C-alpha cells in the first residue's frame, strides 16, 4: 500500500504535525496541572477547580488530539510501506515505540488525575515534577528520529 495517499500525503502529514503539537501541548500542561492539583488537596474548593480544569483539558485537547495523531500517523506509516515490509524504516519502528510509550504516559497521567480527584496522592511532589519532563524527552527523540532518520 505504499504511496496510497497520493497527492493528499502532504495534507495528511501537515494535519498529523498539527495534532502532534496539540497533543504535546496537552501533555506538557496536564502534568503541571497535577502538581498544582496535588498541592491543593488540602483545600477542597481549589482541588475541585483542578479536577474541572483537568477534565476539560482531557476532553477538549488531549484525547481528541491523541486519537487523530494515531489515525493520521498510521495512515502515513502505511503510505511509507510499514505494513509492506519496506526497507530502511528502522527510524519509524523506533518512533512508533516512543509514541506507544508516550500514549502510555498519557494514560498514566489521566489515571493519576482521577486518583487526585478522589483525594489520593501517591507520589511525592518532587517525583511528580520530575515525571513532567518525560514528554519533552520523548518528543525530542521523536523529532530527531523523524528528521535525521539515523537508521
Describe the structure.
The protein has five helices and no strands. It is mainly alpha-helical and 151 residues long. It has one domain. Helix 1 runs antiparallel to helix 2 (44-80). It is elongated. The model has no long low-confidence stretch (mean pLDDT 97).
SSE inventory with pairings:
Elements: H1 9-39, H2 44-80, H3 90-117, H4 125-131, H5 134-148
Could you write a compact summary of the structure shown?
78% of the residues lie in helices and 0% in strands. With 151 residues, it is mostly helical. The chain is elongated, with a radius of gyration of 18 Å.
Task: Write out key terms for the chains shown.
single chain; 151 residues; mainly alpha; 78% helix; elongated
Amino acid at each position: 500500500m505504499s504511496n496510497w495517499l497520493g497527492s493528499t500525503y502532504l495534507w495528511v502529514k501537515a494535519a498529523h504535525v498539527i495534532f502532534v503539537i496539540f497533543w504535546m501541548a496537552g501533555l506538557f500542561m496536564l502534568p503541571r496541572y497535577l502538581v498544582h492539583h496535588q498541592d491543593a488537596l488540602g483545600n477542597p474548593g481549589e482541588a475541585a477547580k483542578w479536577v474541572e480544569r483537568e477534565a476539560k483539558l482531557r476532553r477538549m485537547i488531549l484525547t481528541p488530539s491523541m486519537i487523530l495523531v494515531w489515525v493520521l500517523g498510521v495512515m502515513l506509516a502505511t503510505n511509507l510501506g510499514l505494513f509492506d515490509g519496506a526497507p530502511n524504516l528502522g527510524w519509524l519502528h523506533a518512533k512508533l515505540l516512543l509514541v506507544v510509550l508516550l500514549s502510555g504516559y498519557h494514560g498514566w497521567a489521566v489515571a493519576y488525575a482521577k486518583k487526585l480527584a478522589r483525594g489520593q496522592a501517591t507520589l511525592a511532589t518532587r517525583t511528580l515534577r520530575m515525571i513532567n519532563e518525560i514528554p519533552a524527552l520523548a518528543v525530542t527523540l521523536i523529532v530527531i528520529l523523524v528528521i535525521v532518520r539515523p537508521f
